[in-house]
Fold this sequence. Notes:
Blueprint: H1 2-24, H2 29-102, H3 105-120, H4 127-135
Helix pairs in contact: 2-3
Amino acid sequence: xxxxxNSKSSKQVGQALKKLEQVSDIIPTTDxxxxxxxxxxxxxxxxxxxxxIAKIQAQKEVLLTEIEKRYELYHKVFxxxxxxxxxxxxxxxxxxxxxxxxxxxxxISYGMQGLCKxxxxxxxxNIEQLSKMIEGNKIIEI
Length: 142
């Protein structure tokens, strides 16, 4: 097989030399050689550019995967945070309802205080701390 490639290459070189001879009658040989040198340089540069593009595309894929994983993590964390808030709000309403049914003002007040704490607190109060934990590759228990 190597011989076939070599014979093909030598055949192509021979054809190129014949064409050079034909063109050299019209254009000076130095210009033709300069043209082929520039053509070779352009081909080499194209190969380098293709490798660089492939490298950039691979980096892009890595970054996109990282972004997707972070999105999934944030989604899970926020789902958990809001699930906890939903449970706390439901519990506060249960206490308020029980106080209303029993006519117990202290129970109603206790339920209202719990509801106020949950509603007035921001689930995003510690978002900076959460971001630092994620950026620092810390383990986050959900």
